[in-house]
Amino acid sequence: MESFEFLVPTKIIFGKDSESRVGAEIAARGYKKVLLHYGGTSAVKSGLIGKVRQSLKDAGISFVELSGVLPNPRVSLVREGISLCDHENIDMILAVGGGSVIDSAKAIGMGYYYDGDVWDLYSGAAVAEKTLPVAVILTIPAAGSESSPSSVITNHRLTLKKGCTNEITRPIFAILNPELTYTLPAYQTACGAADIMAHIMERYFTNTPDVCFTDRLCEAGLKTIIEMAPIAIAEPENLNARSNIMWCSSVAHNDLFGTGRSQDWGSHAIEHELSAIYDIAHGAGLAIVFPAWMRYVYKHDLDRFARFGKCVFGIEPDSNDPEATALKAIDALEAFFKSIGLPTRLSEAGIDESRIDEMAEKCTVNDTRNVGGFVPLKTTDVAAIYRLAL
Ligand code: NZQ
Ligand code: ZN
After folding, report:
1. Gyration radius (Cα) of the chain, Å
2. Rounded CA gap, 359 and 372, in Å?
3. Cα 315 to averaged position of ligand 2 atoms, centre (Å)
């Protein structure tokens, strides 16, 4: 195992009706004026935003609202949010939604204190040193942004989607009420499941030996989602399924599962190019990319893929033919994604090969960086993976 430091300062408030505590939690920290940030219509329709407004009023917190965050959140709305925070003397941001809203809130928080254009923090031109604090009421378990140090923002003018990892952006608290996820459509539930599994698999496929504890945590997380996601899709109001998925989702990306081990993250980088250009859901993109990535790299460590098959999908390993076991494991993953209604090929998402070379070049920044840690990939490798996914 490798040396590591692990600190997740986000207070998790989990359970039924926990959103009604939001005003009191903010008041207890001394904040007075909040930017209430949310997405399209779902949180208004469900009555959640009304409930949040009431909780803030009851606690004597004043607030201004900025809604309209789109999936694959735009830097243009982030800039609007920064100006609003400036004009209104906001002292914290409350994100009500999923990864897109939370990431937009994180970008506004950092951009508020940064002198230049906020995109610099995502292009790598600058690093934020300070942020407005962000708190979260989570409505979709998927991205894990509610306790992660990362955010991902899309710049449509440049057709770029870029991540920024900065410990100062971990939210101060996150409210997780699984009942708030009952309204999720089956497709969004499935996309969330794929993203959660991807966060675990990015950590599972490691070159670090002797990490049996975190291997087993990863396997438990994957098995939980494989068991619970179909239940949540069939029975949207199944509290047990929604609860286990929601908690697994947060832990899957707060980096507990990645402690002491090298990680990959190639599939995420490859997917971000897809959602930047084609605006597909991140989880759907991962369901397409991950099996293709696996088929490209599995020979690098047949034993790890065989273990994945055995411990996650219960595939009996063939000791004479570990390659066959590895391939069965990859097939099982793809079959699972299909079974919950996700595309697993680019063609199923209406994407052809016309922009593969462009995406591959962007992904490696014209071969100036390798993509992924398990097997470092160059532009030609990334292009080959997109082609395997056709
Ligand atoms: O906008 P509304 O109307 O709220 O609809 C949303 C949106 O259309 C809907 N939704 C959310 N909660 C709902 C609901 N519909 C009904 N009932 C509810 N309770 O779901 C749709 C998707 O929401 P979004 O926030 O985009 O989903 P997700 O949480 O999957 O976030 C995706 C974004 O997170 C980034 C992705 O790249 C993508 O941009 N990621 C962020 C990470 C991080 N910050 O650590 C890590 C991830 O790997 C990921 O890259
Ligand atoms: Zn993800």
Report:
1. 20
2. 15
3. 26
CA distance 193 to 245: 8
Domain 11-180 has CATH 3.40.50.150: no
209-221: pLDDT as tens digits: 999 999 999 999 9
How much of the chain, in percent, has pLDDT values that exceed 90? 98
The fold of the 186-388 domain, in CATH, is: Dehydroquinate synthase-like, alpha domain (1.20.1090)
Q: Where exactly are the structural domains of the chain?
A: 11-180, 186-388
Q: d(Cα 196, Cα 282) in Å, to the nearest integer?
A: 11
Calpha distance 25→265 (Å, rounded): 34
Pocket-forming residues, ligand 1, beta carbon under 6 Å:
39-43, 71-72, 97-101, 103, 139-140, 142-145, 148, 150-152, 180-181, 183-184, 188, 191-192, 195, 253, 268, 282-283
The pTM for the full model equals 0.98
Give the max Cα distance, the chain.
Answer: 68
